[in-house]
Amino acid sequence: MKLSDLYWYRITPLHFLLWPISVLYGFFLTLKKLCYWLEILPSVKLPVTVIMIDSISVEDGSKTPLLLWLVDCLITQGYRPGIITRDNSDRPNLPHEITCESDTHSVDGKTFLLAHHCRAACPVWIGSDRIATAHALLSAHPECNIIICNGGMHYYQLERDVEIITVDFSAHSFGNGLLVPAGPLRINLNQLKKSDILVTNGKPDHPRDMSKWGKTYTMQLADEMVYNVLKPEIQQSVSCFKNKHLHIVTDANNSRWCFDLMQNKGLHAKLHSYAENHRFSQHEINLPEADAILMPEENALQCKKLANDKLWALPRKAWINNELLEIIIKKLENKN
């Protein structure tokens, strides 16, 4: 269990201290946004359209599938997007491109997953400064006419033309409903009415007043199929593993999703959960007693060089009504 689980999903005596800090944090975010709106603080406008995608929660896992869906849609429509994401490592480097050949130990799983799916069609760059990273990407790939900023809801220094916020209705996402550090939320729910585009995943665990929110679009995440890591052309339904001696290996970022998957699909598996952003070793994924080993796709791709034919990757794909794509394309056309 992560330390945040001890207080982000419940109310404890510690919240007598954490809640006032959250209130101050919310006030700081409002003041910061106002300073950029009044141009007291300078912002940067890129020469291309900027789409910002972020989630309301620190623990929200639906942002990456939405981003991959958006990339595919934009490419189909003839656009040339590029993705920038922030380097959150302890020793940040200068802006650089992430590809399928990048060292998996030097980049987090979600960023490597983006690079694996996007490949040459959509370059993925990472850096500690989003603006510098965007300029570096555009310099190396002048054909790109859209920058997708992965995260950065409160990074107002970079002007965005389209803002997309994901809202996951699971208790794991909303937690106790408080802002960080008292809870997992990055934004007060009352401020969602000011957001450009809201994409919701799942159904509310209890009735929520969404009448004051902005326009919302529904997303569904599918995790029905898996593919063999060494032979990606071989795919099977998750249900095919019901009667096998199955092991599921994951890090803490995906452990709750994997546990829910076992419950929903009726899988009788042994779940191995390691620390957040864990770097897997050979003995952790090569289990002789297992008929098959399932890993979330972002974890499995990092283990490709260590894998045998028992290792299967479990991707999550977003299914969204075409109305959202039409709205995004309309906004992009209005910016040109």
UniProtKB/TrEMBL annotation:
Reaction equation(s) it catalyzes: a lipid A disaccharide + ATP = a lipid IVA + ADP + H(+)
UniProt keywords, alphabetically: ATP-binding, Kinase, Lipid A biosynthesis, Lipid biosynthesis, Lipid metabolism, Membrane, Nucleotide-binding, Transferase, Transmembrane, Transmembrane helix
Catalytic activity, EC: 2.7.1.130
Transmembrane segments: 6-28
Any matching Pfam family: LpxK
Keyword Oxidoreductase: no
Pathway the protein acts in: Glycolipid biosynthesis; lipid IV(A) biosynthesis; lipid IV(A) from (3R)-3-hydroxytetradecanoyl-[acyl-carrier-protein] and UDP-N-acetyl-alpha-D-glucosamine: step 6/6
Entry keyword Transferase: yes
Domain of life of the source: Bacteria
InterPro entries: LpxK
Listed GO MF terms: ATP binding; lipid-A 4'-kinase activity
One GO term (biological process): lipopolysaccharide core region biosynthetic process
Gene Ontology CC terms: plasma membrane
Role of this protein: Transfers the gamma-phosphate of ATP to the 4'-position of a tetraacyldisaccharide 1-phosphate intermediate (termed DS-1-P) to form tetraacyldisaccharide 1,4'-bis-phosphate (lipid IVA).
Family that this chain belongs to: Belongs to the LpxK family.
NCBIfam families: lpxK
Name the UniProt record assigns to this protein: Tetraacyldisaccharide 4'-kinase
Lineage, top ranks: Bacteria, Pseudomonadati, Pseudomonadota, Betaproteobacteria, Nitrosomonadales
